[in-house]
Amino acid sequence: MLSYEQARRTVIEQVAKARRPRATANVSVWDALGFVLAEQVRTDREYPPFDRSTRDGYAVRAADAAPGTALRCAGEIKAGDTVTQPLAAGTCVQIMTGAAVPAGADAVVMIEHTHRDGDMVRFDRVAQPGQNIVARASEAKSGQTILSAGMRLGYAELALAAQVGASQLCCSAKPRVAILSTGDEVVAIDQSPGAFQIRNSNSVSLAAQVRLAGGQPVLLGNAADNVEDLRAKIQCGLQEDVLVLSGGVSMGKYDLVETVLKDLGAEFYFDSVAIRPGKPAVFGKCGDTFVFGLPGNPVSTMVTFELFVAPAVDLLSGAAARDLPLVQAKLGAALNEKQGLTHFLPARVEWRDTTPEVKPLPWQGSGDVATLTRANCFLVIAADRGQVNEGETVPILLRKDMI
Ligand code: AMP
Ligand code: MG
Q1: DSSP reduced 3-state for 19
Q2: Cα(399)–Cα(403) distance, rounded to whole angstroms?
Q3: Distance 184 CA to ligand 2 centre (A)
Q4: CA neighbor of 5 nearest in space, from 287, 342, 371, 362
Q5: Are residues 344 and 277 in contact, defined by beta-carbon separation less than 8 angstroms?
Q6: Among 182, 230, 246, which residue has the most ligand 1 atoms within 8 Å of its CB, making it the best to mutate?
Q7: Residue 253: Cβ within 10 Å count
Q8: Is the CB of 280 under 6 A from ligand 1?
Q9: SS3 label, residue 91
Q10: Does the beta carbon of 277 sit less than 6 angstroms from any atom of ligand 1?
Q11: pLDDT tens track for 112-140
Q12: From residue 261, how far is each of 155, 230, 282, 294, 370 by CA, in Å?
């Protein structure tokens, strides 16, 4: 049985191998958060376009502003002012943050380091040439590539695009991820379940996880635990880039997902992983569609999506697969888990000063979504660890929607 790291590598290898250029579309910079750029974005001019003051103060020739010297203030320059006049020798000019430094000036002295008396400004300290000035073109030359194809667009990337006037961005189409739950006991969330039925909460969590991963969810509802219904609905899902199923992959008599997929010509790269929850997770390919069969217990579905489906969505978006957000934390309470499987336990991490301390949350197992709403991470207990002591350093997998 593969470890979760091996299973993840398998997903990344298989999806990377099959990756083809994706359709693209122009997306407004206002709407492009989470898209992946499909073109390069270049500057429209130099950045900054002029020598820019980074402080409120006085523009001077550094050599004129020795400590104890007073210079006549010849005027002021606000941010946005057109600056044509050079600084006259033996004078200074008041300048604001973001304003253009006049020709002839080579330093800005912070207002806090000066004393003003009428027109005269006295300087406290030595001024260094270049201080508090960002030189024209020092951030980027005109026509320089500042964002490249394959970059994920977060708020800083969008701001940079906006700075250079790229208000429409050519982005890869988001991968379409079909979501199909399975189970005779499952009803739609707007129906009232019978005494022994449950609402289809997995399709809701999966759609949210698909969106967070940068994909476009395509909702296929629920398939009953029979070959005919499963086959028809799986065939719909095979029209999309990825098909994610929940339930029907365990050892039960009515766990038919793999049988139906096999019948439709799927090849499988793994059909179990040494983890808890989530051991029966299945990954394969049917035609051009990558298929994930995730166990139906809600927390198993959530964990296995993060571990295995998210990197596939990254790659199909035209980006690199993001690393898992694993960090080290100090364990706040001793643990004892069965060896042989890597455990992912709902837990809460809190930062004391800068040291993360994590405590597992008591829970009822992989059906217990209520506990997960109090968790902001999963404690990761390696397969070869049974007893873990309080105070030990342990890896945690952050819930990226919560931290
Ligand atoms: P399975 O993996 O099909 O054996 O299902 C395992 C458990 O997950 C059962 O208790 C199911 O009732 C539950 N389950 C299956 N599908 C869903 C779903 N779509 N939403 C919520 N719970 C589910
Ligand atoms: Mg089932």
Answers
A1: coil
A2: 6
A3: 7
A4: 342
A5: yes
A6: 246
A7: 6
A8: no
A9: strand
A10: no
A11: 999 999 999 999 999 999 999 999 999 99
A12: 40, 9, 11, 13, 32
Residue 181 near ligand 1, beta carbon < 6 Å = yes
Q: Is 248 in the pocket of ligand 1 (CB under 6 A)?
A: yes
Ligand 1 atom closest to residue 225's alpha carbon, by position in its atom list: 3
Q: Ligand 1, atom 23: nearest CA belongs to which residue?
A: 296
What is the pLDDT, as a whole number, of residue 381?
Answer: 97
Q: How far apart are the first and last CA of the chain?
A: 32
Which regions of the chain are under pLDDT 70? none
Contacts of 379 (CB under 8 A, 6+ apart): 331, 335, 343, 344, 345, 346, 347, 358, 360, 394, 396
Inter-residue contact 209 to 304 (CB < 8 Å): no
Dihedral over Cα of 154, 156, 162, 166: its sign: negative
The CA distance from 149 to 142, in Å, is 19
pLDDT at 382: 95
- In this prediction, residue 352 carries a pLDDT of 85
> Residue with the nearest Cα to atom 15 of ligand 1?
296
Q: Is 250 in the pocket of ligand 1 (CB under 6 A)?
A: yes
State how far the Cα of 22 lies from the Cα of 318, in Å rounded to an integer: 7
Q: What is the pTM of this model?
A: 0.95
Decide: 318 in ligand 1 pocket, CB within 6 A.
Answer: no
How wide is the angle at C-alpha 245 spanned by C-alphas 243 and 246, nearest 5°? 155
Name the phi and psi angles at 65, rounded to 5: -105, 45
